[in-house]
Every structure is written in C-alpha cells, then in structure tokens.
Amino acid sequence: xxxxxxxxxxxxxxxxxxxxxxxxxxxxxxxxxxxxxxxxxxxxxxxxxxxxxxxxxxxxxxxxxxxxxxxxxxxxxxxxxxxxxxxxxxxxxxxxxxxxxxxxxxxxxxx
Length: 111
Description:
single chain, 5 helices, flat
C-alpha cells in the first residue's frame, strides 16, 4: 500500500489485547504516549526533563552539551545532502495525523 493511501485509509491504533498492558493515559485518540519522545511525559503531559533536543538541530545539541560539559563538543554530520523524497500530504490528512499525535505536532508544527 502506498504511504499516502495508508495515511488516507489506514489507522494506527491500540488493539483490544494491548490495551491492558498500556499505561492508562494511552488512548487511541492520542498516540503520542507511544512514541519514544513521549516517555518524558507523565499522564498529564507534564515533562520530566528540562529540555528536549531535536536530533536534527545538531547545533543546538552541541551548544547544550558544551554548556553541560564545559568544553567544546562537535557532533559529526553524515547527511548533508538536503535531499528529500517526502510526498505531498493533503491538509486534511495532516490534520488527522496532528490529532493522533498532539505532542509531536507541538514539537514539529506543520508548515
């Protein structure tokens, strides 16, 4: 199934069997708690950490580490192409995704 078709008609959700193993704040209408980034949040969406560093913001990561360590930090950059093969995603589909992943939408607001 092509990616755009899956976004239009597919559904990511929590099956009935898995619901009993998940924390109670995970809902099929909010899948953010299932993401790696969301492991820093409690059930009220309050963060346990002072700052979240985005991997794609290497400069900010270096700056943060330098402040913490008190010495120069340089993170190697492997991909500098800037090339992207991301297909165009219609606004209604982006809104559907944003509804399912509110934390990630706050971190990466749609442009």
